[in-house]
Amino acid sequence: MSRQPLVTHIYTADPSAHVFEGKVYIYPSHDLDLEAEENDLGDQYAMTDYHVLSQEHPEGPATDHGEALHVARVPWASRQMWAPDAAYRNGRYYFYFPARDRDHVFRIGVATSDRPTGPFTPEPEPIPGSFSIDPCVFQALDGEFYMVFGGLWGGQLQCWASGTFVRDAETPADDREALRPKIARMSPDMLTFAEPPRDATILDEAGAPLISRDNDRRYFEGPWMHVYHGTYYLSYSTGDTHRLVYATGSSPTGPFTYRGQFLTPPVGWTTHHSIVEFGGRWWLYYHDATLSGGISHKRSVKVQELFYEPDGSIRLMEP
Ligand code: FUB
Q: How far is the CA of 261 from the centre of ligand 1 (A)?
């Protein structure tokens, strides 16, 4: 199978793949072809808009449907349109995206359309009570929708550890419990949270929460949830150790037990992915920075088949 970028005329990253109307629709970030100095706050990820891609099949070519939303159309947002996601409910498509507000605090917004390709019309304000980055909106087995979200460092998850925003907050000390992704049930209209976000706990094999110095396993950013054989799979990036790993649980809100790594580090600093079933097979959408020669903020979305072992574990892959 080809491991080439889905498209090469623009840089794309952070792919959230969904099957809508019999096709795969991919909702990526749109990396700009800009020179930028890299820093740990991610200022180099200065994206301003989103494009939607689609494929008739994960092994086939991708179509770029053009600009679906621009920061200039979002009244509350100032910059940095980071990793988005989309959902379908009751005849409407909902596009979720993080961006910095006018105080430079990351919030999560929602925009709607009657088509999977957009253009999407943004709500005038971010989702009340939202913060940080990397929304993933999924439907649980009982039909309810949830958003799992959050990212460290430039994604500001550590700034909210006390419940209110502390701009210069640091990540927990090495021997303390690691930060966890946040999860909230969505209201029926999909525009607000039905409850305050809570922690999605990730435990080790002995049932203890992962701790901060466990950099190969603890949560960093880019959560994705899917269900396989009745089990919830929470997968995510370990950030500074550049792995894609997963944990499983019997409830959409956790707790989740760490299970393993499924993708070794791709080229570039960030790792971000989604997992989707299409045609009775499973597919991993992810990005790397090969096309740009390794420039971390110029990434390209790729896809490869994903395999489960008989015990439900995900087979380790190389990009
Ligand atoms: O693309 C900007 C940020 O980089 C995303 O929000 C993170 O997940 C990381 O991929």
A: 19
136-187 tens-digit pLDDT: 999 999 999 999 999 999 999 999 999 999 999 999 999 999 999 999 999 9
Question: DSSP for 165-192?
Answer: --TT--PPPTTSBPP--EEEEBPTTSSS
Distance CA 53, CA 61 (A): 10
The answer to whether residue 175 is domain-embedded is yes
Please indicate whether residue 85, judged by its CB atom, sits closer than 6 Å to ligand 1.
no
Task: Characterise 228 by phi-psi region: left (phi > 0), alpha (psi -120 to 50), beta (else).
Answer: beta
What is the Å distance from ligand 1's center to 137 Cα? 16
Placement of tokens 């490869």 in the chain: 304
| Number of domains present in the structure of the chain | 1
Q: Which domain holds residue 24?
A: 11-306
Pocket lining: 135 vs ligand 1, CB cutoff 6 Å? no
Closest residue by Cα to residue 304 from 288, 319, 289: 319
Query: Domain containing 103 — which CATH number?
Result: 2.115.10.20
